From TrEMBL, chains A, B:
Its EC number is 2.6.1.2. One of its GO terms (cellular component) is cytoplasm. Catalyzes the reversible transamination between alanine and 2-oxoglutarate to form pyruvate and glutamate. Participates in cellular nitrogen metabolism and also in liver gluconeogenesis starting with precursors transported from skeletal muscles. It comes from Astyanax mexicanus. Residues 77-451 form the Aminotransferase class I/classII large domain. This is Alanine aminotransferase 1. SUPFAM superfamilies: PLP-dependent transferases. Pfam families: Aminotran_1_2 (PF00155).
Length: 495, 495
């Protein structure tokens, strides 16, 4: 203690004194395994010898990082918006220039450096509304119901923030799928909401069964007030695409049980499997007639980060609210205004996504070529993923119908499970850590997404599943195993 | 009620059932007066006749919206980052190309469309650290202590989120100045933290007195646990610049009272008044010796939105944490990872701000010319603001030493106050609404920032204070008054 008498206090902000909700937050996609991967990359750069020369990051759907190319038209327009003097440059096509002018005119002072309206630039909200109407076969969409956001994550957190209230057994309960994308569990922990798990059926290609929703809901009613049902379609991390019937069943369930529906539809253009098709919750809701379409409260999220764009760094996105109470909408608008506005470059990019080059415009042919190429590559990888992974004894992988991930189950040897437990690690975390240390492959363990007790999985971004990857996978981390198809897998044996 | 038995439930999400903390949030800078201003703009476009032809928005520090020009170098580099094919274009100076290449190399896959590390791109955090060291005369700064953010607002909310805990009388109390920037009161309402008001001394040019801090702290200890002290320097909305002595006093106070210091220093380069100088809290802290510099926990915020850049739309910013508990830092890193990453274009812009063209580089001369011009314009407007406003009877305005606003006190006639009360409006809101409806000037009433009871103010962005503005102000909204200097002010009389 000093003469001032304050040094004995120690820190103001410590693990003990900090917000306990934040402490409970977990986010596996960027968790300990990714931090270790970054360290290993540093060690490699510093010349440390490893059994591999680079870390393969299959932990996150970061398209451009893995070599996916941006769409030329998008980037040209963004360059002109950044530096409008380029509008005088003859090397840019007319449609690129027109589009840049149109966006700049919608910005205060003609600059993307100005704040926009907190809900997003009006012109862009209009374009989003028209885009949704085209997608949904003409079902009307009002730009007043569109809120632009910094990626979908921002919108999801904003809606959860509005929805969570009450104390003790009347605290808001939010139903999320297991496996889930961990933004949901993290957001619910931060808000001290009650997480209600409903399980997807791995045996039926990760499909959703309303019986399971009902089971979860009824169990939860004993200790909280369930008010929200979150759906991810196409699924992350599970890659399933919901049938129209399933969506209708979910909507009926939400209506009957008075649940607010949150539909995470950021992978709506990432559908690969034959016979699968994306159906928006909004469209199905409106096709079910006024009894539902005038009643069920729904919010749907979309983003510029996935699909053929893959522009994660721009943090572009939007949400559409349907049947939101007008007074609550005022509150929502107020809430988003505190953060001033979503990044304007992300808004501009979103405008291009919802309003791409038209057939009579000079950039159209290149745009279509680039988009088709990227989508074809993604579809090919989706197919390859399931084919290759299922060749590996001990690994079992559902078809990747959509989105960008596979979530195979892995059989871990009892000795591996025992050693993991000794170390206080989840067995699949232990497995993924070994794979990282020995082979330089960075996957996210299934425990970060949730899984049925006693089962183990990992999530891998599908584009990583090239031959060299599968070779590494089959040689690690618990020693090779001879099988019919050659020198194979980690997983069957341990020591 | 229908046969399904659910329609009688009504909405899930209503004013009654929503998060009560969100309901308590207020954000005057984009509040009802601004919404009305947007409506009026629409009415004008639709041909509705008004006593004015355009709305002058003096509600927000939105530089480019008011005609401030972006820095050419910044926008050129950003254009090249967006569309790297321009690197082959001979029309761009070499330093622009080099800088774009350097940023792109630091992005995964060489694309600003990739996610960055959640804490921000390492190269840029390094550049920020070097910038802070130069600013603070060589006091060391570690890039590990730098977190990039989506504007300063994002960083401020993140830190408050970490800091708030406890229930009832042990709930975290956060000291904020009155007047304050309403992000703070909004953030505290959202987090259900206890807001502790300390008043700035209007009679002494809005200076901060430690005696007042102590009064506020002691009063607050009866009902909460005060743990955080927020300072805005230069002041928003009050425009004062703190003396070095004052900062030292504040740091001593924080040390004695065991408070975590949050220093909002986004206007650090907006200092105009002779004899005034910006002193960073970090520098003063380290000059006070190890007894303080090794103990006091501090976070400082900065942004690309103000100063000569004014690039609000890019949502660029950073915070530096000093003496943060290492375990808490792990938690902070985890928390920011849930939102994936700050917008990468904002990060790139920040890099250019902290690492501008050097004297031997081709873009240097233009950069200096543009920057000097903007800063000179801002300084001129600061001077003009106080000169002109103080000519108006009933308005009294402190010198604008820094930042971008004036916060004059206004004397409202008793009849105006009475009419406001009848309408259930704060009297200065009533005044500002009248000014908007009759003259098309959009100001934010002092009640949105906080003020001593019985006093009334408005905040005006200073660049708006041109001659035509003051003419409008003096002719409204309660009828002109003859004074020595001509036909003048609203404020002395009512009806």
């Amino acid at each position: 203690m000093t003469e001032n008498g304050f040094l004995h206090h120690g820190k103001v902000l410590t693990l003990d004194s900090m917000n306990p909700n934040v402490k409970r937050v977990e986010y596996a996609v960027r968790g300990p395994i990714v931090q270790r991967a970054v360290q290993i990359e540093k060690e490699l750069r510093e010349g440390v010898k490893k059994p591999f020369t680079e870390v393969i990051k299959a932990n996150i759907g970061d398209c451009h990082a893995m070599g996916q190319k941006p769409i030329t038209f998008f980037r040209q327009v963004l360059a002109l918006c950044s530096y409008p003097e380029l509008l005088e440059d003859n090397k840019f096509p007319e449609d690129v220039k027109n589009r840049a002018r149109r966006i700049l005119q919608a910005c205060a002072g003609g600059s993307i450096g100005s704040y926009s309206a907190s809900q997003g630039i009006e012109l862009i909200r209009n374009d989003v509304a028209r885009y949704i109407e085209r997608r949904d076969g003409g079902i009307p969409c009002s730009p007043d119901n569109i809120y632009l956001s910094a990626g979908a994550s921002d919108g999801i957190m904003t809606m959860l923030k509005l929805l969570v209230s009450g104390e003790g057994s009347s605290r808001t309960g939010v139903m999320i799928s297991i496996p889930q994308y961990p933004l949901y569990s993290a957001g619910l922990a931060e808000l001290a909401a009650v997480q209600i798990n409903y399980y997807l059926d791995e045996a039926k290609c990760w499909s959703l069964d309303v019986k399971e929703l009902r089971r979860a809901l009824e169990a939860a009613r004993k200790h909280c007030r369930p008010r929200v049902l979150c759906i991810i379609n196409p699924g992350n991390p599970t890659g399933q695409v919901q049938s129209r019937q399933c969506i209708e069943d979910v909507i009926k369930f939400a209506a009957e049980e008075n649940l607010f529906l949150m539909a995470d539809e950021v992978y709506q253009d990432n559908v690969y499997a034959e016979g699968c098709q994306f159906h928006s919750f909004k469209k199905v809701l409106f096709e079910m007639g006024p009894e539902y379409s005038e009643k069920v409260e729904l919010v749907s999220f979309h983003s510029t980060s996935k699909c053929y764009m893959g522009e994660c760094g721009f943090r572009g996105g939007y949400m559409e609210v349907v049947n939101l109470d007008p007074e609550v909408k005022v509150q929502l608008t107020k809430l988003v205004s505190v953060r001033l506005c979503p990044p304007v470059t992300g808004q501009a990019l979103l405008d291009l996504v919802v309003n791409p080059p038209q057939p009579d415009e000079p950039s159209y042919a290149t745009f279509i070529k680039e988009r088709s190429h990227t989508l074809a590559m993604l579809a090919e990888k989706a197919k390859m993923t399931q084919d290759i992974l299922n060749q590996v004894p001990g690994i079992s992988c559902n078809p990747v119908q959509g989105a960008m991930y596979s979530f195979p189950s892995i059989q871990l040897p009892p000795k591996a499970i025992a050693e993991a437990k000794e170390k206080g690690q989840a067995p699949d975390m232990f497995y993924c850590m070994k794979l990282l240390e020995e082979k330089g492959i960075c996957l996210v363990p299934g425990s970060g997404f949730g899984q049925r007790d006693g089962t183990f999985h990992f999530r891998s971004v599908m584009w990583i599943l090239k031959v060299f990857f599968i070779k590494k996978l089959t040689a690690a981390p618990f020693g090779p195993v001879k099988t019919d198809s050659g020198s194979f897998v980690p997983i069957g044996r341990f020591h």
